[in-house]
Amino acid sequence: MNTRLIGILIQSIPKILIPGLTYTIPLTLISFLIGLVIAIIVAVVRVLYIKVLSQIFQFYVWVFRGTPMLVQLFIIFYGLPNVGLNIPAFPSAVLAFSLNVGAYASETIRGSILAIPKSQTEGATACGLTMGQTMFHIILPQAIRHCVPALFNTFISLVKDTSLAANITIAEMFMATQRIVAVTYEPLGLYIEVALFYLLFSTGLTSLQRYVEHRMNPLRVQPEEV
Asked: How many domains does the chain have?
């Protein structure tokens, strides 16, 4: 590795990391939280099979799970202006990522809800709880606990998928790297560098996932007292 490349890599660290802190991380957090709310609503409606809404949500999940996220980004940012809807780049990315996360996470949550024994619903009904009260106070909390690992995986995948936002002019980490490459003509070293930043973020989230799973596991083994 020559001295020039080392200097470029060192100088590019803040130029890549700052967009990561100002765009990549906020975009990931906002999109995931909104997507999680969408997922819970969609999953509950589909499990309860509320007429019309259930069919609409099933169609939504089918579309967003069956099309590439990049295409969804382009439709929202470049396509919707043709029908008079001009959405700025960052909100467009949030909308696309949130809807995509909502579609995938809703299936995860729905599967967890359906895995809860029916005896719990029957017991809640016998105690006088309505279907809505049973779902939100008994079934849904257990379902969310069970699908935490899968939701964390979705969150970690979203961190990496935010690199697609560079295609709609958002200056996140990947676009910042592309701009540096265009000036320095050192693609290999710089793309490896930005890959390491994504790897760093993903590794941190993986560690957080293990900690949360350990804290939420009620059956974890406690050290024996001597």
From this structure: 1
In a domain, 223, yes or no: no
Count Cα atoms within 13 angstroms, Cβ side, for 122. Answer: 3
Asked whether residue 77 carries a pLDDT value surpassing 60, the answer given is: yes
The residue whose two tokens read 């969804």 is 72
Residue 67 has pLDDT above 50, yes or no: yes
Write out the two tokens for 182: 């265009």
What is the residue range of 87's domain?
A: 3-216
Task: Give Cβ neighbours of residue 73 (< 8 Å, ≥ 6 apart).
Answer: 92, 93, 96, 164, 165, 167, 168
Q: What is the CATH number of the domain that holds 61?
A: 1.10.3720.10
User: Cα–chain-centroid distance for residue 36?
Assistant: 8
C-alpha distances out from residue 124 to 43, 111, 119, 142, 205, Å:
20, 20, 9, 14, 36
What is the pLDDT, as a whole number, of residue 74? 96
Q: pTM here?
A: 0.87
Residues contacting 4, CB < 8 A, separation 6+: none
Listed in sequence order, the residues at least 6 apart from 140 whose beta carbon sits closer than 8 Å to its beta carbon are 40, 44, 113
CA separation for the pair 141, 139 (Å, rounded): 6
Return the structure tokens found at 162: 């935010």
